[in-house]
Amino acid sequence: MGKVTGFLEIERQEARYQPASDRIRHFREFTLPLSEGEVAKQAARCMDCGIPFCHGPQGCPVHNQIPDWNDLVYSDDWQEASRNLHSTNNFPEFTGRICPAPCEEACTLNLENVPVAIKTIEQAIADKAWSNGWVVPEPPDEKTGKSVAIIGSGPAGLAAAQQLARAGHDVHVYEREPKAGGLLRYGIPDFKMEKSHIDRRVVQMEGEGVQFRYGVNVGKDVQFAELVDGYDAVLFAGGSEDPRDPKLPGQELQGVHNAMPFLVQQNRRVGFENAIPETPVEAGGKHVVVIGGGDTASDCVGTSFRQGAISVTQLDIRPVPPKIEDKLMTWPYWPTKFRTSSSQAEGADREFSAVTLGIEGKNGKVVGVKCARGDAKRQPIPGTEFILKADLVFIALGFQGPVKEGLVEQSGVALDKRGNVLADEQNYVTSNPKVFAAGDMRRGQSLVVWAIREGRQAAQAIDVFLTGASTLPR
Ligand code: FAD
Question: Where is the Dihydroprymidine dehydrogenase domain (predicted)?
Fold first, then answer.
C-alpha cells in the first residue's frame, strides 16, 4: 500500500465520456482516459484493506490481484502491474472497457459509496501495456503432442485457447463467423469496445500457435464425430444464443424484431463485413421501444440513437431504484446490480415497473406498445395501462441456453435443468469424457469476465486430462 491516507484525501474519479451529443454521431469508443498521473492518484485510494473483497468470491471472478496492481501503479511500475494483471486475466483491455466491475461493488470503500475506480485503472494498465509493446506472444518452450479443438471464439474460447497453447498443446479454434470474438465482436457495439482490441489479441495468439478455422459451423459443415475422433479433447464454448420468447400478442407485426439481428447487422456494417441483409433493420427517423433491462437492451438503445432514432424508450420490469439526495441509487451504490449504461444517459426514456402487455398494430405494422405498471410480483396492476408510440420494437429479454439444433443435438451431451450443457465448475467435463464446456454455453448467459474465468479454468482441467497434471493457474 503506497499512500496510507490516499482514500481519505483523494476523491474518486472515473474515466470521462465525450458528451452524449458528440458521441451519438459515431460508433467509436468515447471514453476519455484519465492521465497517467490521475490514474496513479486513483490507485492510491486503494486501502489494501485486510479483507480485500474486491478479488474474493463476491468481487472479481478471475481474482485479479487488485490491491497489488493498484500499489504498482501508484509506485509507477506499470510494467509489473501489467504482468500481475495478465497473470489472472488474459484480456484486461476487454474487461477494463466492458466489465460491470463487480470488484467495485465489493470494494470496502463502497460502504461510503466511493469505491476505488478499479475498472478505469485496469483499462489504463492494459492500454499502456499494448502501447509500450509489453504484450507479445508467449509460445511454449515444449510441445506436448496433444491436440484440442475449441468450438467458439468468444471470450471463453479465446481464453481457453491461449492457456492451452501456452501449455504446449496444438489448439484449433472452430468459429462459424468470419472473424473471432463471439459476442464481443458481433453483439457488443464498437462504441463500448472497438474490434481492433480483438484483432491484435488474435495476432498474439497466432504467434503462440493457435490456429483459427473461420466460417466452420460445427454440427453442420463439420460433424461432431470428426472432431471428437480427430482431437485428444474438445471444448464447447459456443455461447448461449437461443433468445427468450415472450410470446406477446402482436409480436408478429412488421417492425418487431429480436435484438440480436439488429446489433449484429450494425457490427458487421462498422466492421465492413458484407453479410448484411438487403433490407436491414434501421432505427433512423423512428420511435423505438426496447423491451428489456439488460446489456442487450442498452446496446439497442445506444445503436438506435447512433442510427438517428427520433425517440428511444426502454421498458424495464424492475422498479425504479431509490434516490438519495437526488442521486438515483444505481450500481455500484445500490446492491441489486442496477446499472445505468452510457446509452441510457444518451437520452432514453426509461419506464420502470413496466409490464409489456402486447404490441399494437395497424395495417400489419407496429404502431405502439401496450404496457401496465407491475406490482411487487411483476404482475400488471389493473387500471394502470398505457400505450407508447412505436414504429420499431426490439425484444431484448435475454437468452435461454445454447441452440440445440446442430452441435448440441449431434454430440448427445447431457444438459442441465436450464438447458445449458451440463458440466461442473471443477472439471468442466461433460457427460462425454473427451468433451468439456465453458462460458455461456455451460453457465447460461453471463458476463465477459465469467467467460474468461471459465475458459481459463476449463483449460487447466483439459491440461490435467491430457497430461495428468497442470501448471496452468485457475
Ligand atoms: P460467445 O461470446 O457467445 O461466443 C460463442 C461463439 O461460438 C460465437 O462466436 C459463435 O459464433 C460460436 N459458435 C457457436 N456455435 C458454433 C458452432 N456450432 N460452430 C462454430 N462456432 C460456433 N458482458 C459483459 O461483461 N459486459 C457487457 O457490456 C456485455 N454486453 C453484452 C451485450 C450484448 C448485446 C450481449 C448479447 C451480451 C453482452 N454481454 C456483456 C455478455 C457477454 O458478451 C457474454 O457473456 C460472453 O460473450 C460469453 O462468452 P462465450 O465465449 O461463452 O460465448
Answer: 23-133
Are 67 and 109 in contact by the 8 Å Cβ rule? The answer is no
Per the structure, how many domains does the chain have? 3
Say if residue 303's pLDDT is above 90: yes
- The x, y and z cell numbers of residue 465, run together, are 486430462
What's the distance, Cα to Cα, between the start and end of the chain in Å?
A: 26
125 and 227 within one domain: no
- Look at residue 338 and give its three-state secondary structure: coil
Res 242 pLDDT > 90: yes
The amino acid at 59:
G
Radius of gyration of the chain (CA): 23
Report ipTM for this prediction: 0.99
CB of 314 closer than 8 Å to CB of 349: yes
Structural domain that includes position 276:
245-397
Report which of 342, 329, 355, 360 is spatially closest to residue 302, judged by C-alpha positions: 342
* C-alpha 8 to ligand 1 mean position (Å): 40
Query: 237 and 360 in one domain?
Result: no
Please tell me the distance from the alpha carbon of residue 406 to that of residue 258, in angstroms, as a whole number: 21
Q: What is the pTM of this model?
A: 0.96
What per-residue confidence (pLDDT) applies to 338?
53
Asked if residue 371 is part of any domain, the answer here is: yes
pLDDT band, very low/low/confident/very high, at 324 (cuts 50, 70, 90): low
Distance of CA 292 to the CA centre of its chain: 17
pLDDT, one tens digit per residue, over 332-358 is: 454 444 566 888 889 899 999 999 999
**Ligand 1 mean position to 183 CA, how many Å?**
4
Residue 282 near residue 387, CB atoms below 8 Å: no
Which residue, judged by its Cα, is nearest atom 34 of ligand 1?
296
